[in-house]
UniProtKB/TrEMBL annotation, chain A:
Cited InterPro entries: RNA_pol_sigma-70-like, RNA_pol_sigma-70_dom, RNA_pol_sigma70_r2, RNA_pol_sigma70_r4, RNA_pol_sigma_r2, RNA_pol_sigma_r3/r4-like, WH-like_DNA-bd_sf
Pfam family, one: Sigma70_r2
Domain of life assignment: Bacteria
Family of this protein: Belongs to the sigma-70 factor family. ECF subfamily.
Endpoints of the signal sequence: none
Protein name stated in the entry: Sigma-70 family RNA polymerase sigma factor
NCBIfam families with a match to the protein in the record: sigma70-ECF
Domain (RNA polymerase sigma-70 region): residue spans on this chain: 49-110, 149-197
Keyword Transcription attributed: yes
Keyword line: DNA-binding, Sigma factor, Transcription, Transcription regulation
Organism, as annotated: Motilimonas cestriensis
Automatic annotation (TrEMBL), chain B:
Lineage: Bacteria, Pseudomonadati, Pseudomonadota, Gammaproteobacteria, Alteromonadales
Chain ranges of the ChrR-like cupin domain: 103-195
Protein name according to UniProt: ChrR family anti-sigma-E factor
Pfam family, one: Cupin_7
Amino acid sequence: MYQTSQLADANIKKPDPNLDIQPELNQYLLAVASDQDKAAFAKLFAFFAPKIKAFGLKQFRQEALAMDLVQETMSLVWRKAQLYSPEKGKASTWIFTIMRNYSFDMLRKIQHNKEDNLSDDLWPLYEEAEPESDHDDDHLMRAQLIQGLETLPPKQKEVVEAIYLKEMTHQELAEHLKVPLGTIKSRLRLGLEKLKEQMEQHND
Amino acid sequence: MIKHHPESTMIQAFTAGELPASLSIAVSIHLELCPHCKAIAAKMTQALADEEFNEELELSSNDDFSAMMANITAEPVIPQPEPKNVASEIEVEEKTYTLPRALSRFADSKWSGLGNIQRARLPLEEGEVHASLLQIGEDSAIPHHTHKGYELTLLLDGYFEDESGRYEKGDFIILNGEHQHSPYTAEGCLCYTVSNAPLHFTSGVSKLLNPIGRFLY
Ligand SMILES: [Zn+2]
C-alpha cells in the first residue's frame, strides 16, 4: 500500500501491474474534487486516457470517435469530480461509469440517430450502489447463474464463480490459484462471453 | 415482494452498456426497486471496471494528449449541486402515478386509448422493438394470446395475475413464443412493456382482437 508521501515520486517507478494502485487513484480523484489539483488530474489522465481510447476503439472502430470518448470522459471527470464519493466505490469504477455512459449515448447516436442522452437516467453518476449484498442463496438469479456456470469449462467456471459468487478480487484469485493476473482476466472474459451467448440463445 | 428478476446475464449486459435502450430502461427501473439486483449490478460494474482499466497500457508516443489535457483543465469547474431526483408525475384516466427515474423524461408522452387500455409509446427509435407505457383499467382481462417475438413487462403500479401467478410492482417478466397467457387485473395497473412483434390472439372470437394486439405492440 502507498503512503501519501510516496505519491509524489510514484511516476518515477515503472508501474507494476500487480501493485494495487486503487488507493492512489482515489486520492488523485479526491484532490481534483477538493482543489481542482491539476497535477493529480495529470496522473489520472496518464493512467486512464490510453485505456479509455482502447475501449473506444473496440466500441466504435474509429480513431476520431475513440478520441472523442477520451475527451468527453476526462472532461466530465474534471468537472464532476465532486460527485465522486469514496464510500460508494473505487475511483476507477466511477470513471468506468462515466465512460460507459458516454459511450452508450454515442452508440445510440450512431446506430439510431437519437441524441437523447439517456444514460444519466439509466445509470445515475452520484448513486452507484454500494456493493454490499445480502446474499440470499436460494435466490432465483443466483440459481440461474449457477445453472449457467455448469456448462462452462472447469477453469472458466472456477474464475467466474470466485469473482461473482465468492466476491474475490482478481488479484486475490490470481494469488489463490497461483496464476498470472492476465490468465484470470482472459478466463473471466471467455466465461462471461459464453454466459452471454446462452442468454442470447435464450432470448431468440 | 418482487419475485421475478432479470437474469444475471442480462444485468451483466446492462452494466456493460450492451443492451438496447428499451431493455436498459426496464433493467434500470428494476434495479431502482430491487436492492438485491442493484447490489449484483454494482459488483458487476466494479468487475468490468477492473477488467477494462487493469490492462497495462501506457501512453503511446503517437498519441499527443497534452493539448487535450490542457484544454480540459482550462475549463472552469462549476460547483455541482447535489443532484436530486425530481419526482415526475403523470395522470392517466384520473389516476396519478410517480414515474421511476429511468422514465421521468417521458412524463409528457401522448396517450391514446382503446377500450380499457391506454397506451403511450416511447420515442426510442429502435426499429421493430417498441417500448410503451400501458395502463390497464380495473377488472380487465387480455384474452389468450401468444408472443411471436418476446414481450417484457415491468410492473410499475398495481398488480395483475395470469396462469402462473400474481405479479407485483417491480416484477420483471419476459415472455416469448412458447408462453401463452391471459393476464387479468382486478384493480388496474400501469406497466412498462417492450416487445418486438404484435401480440397474437389465439382463441376463437378473440382472434377478432388482433387489431388490439397491434395496438399493444
Ligand atoms: Zn431483482
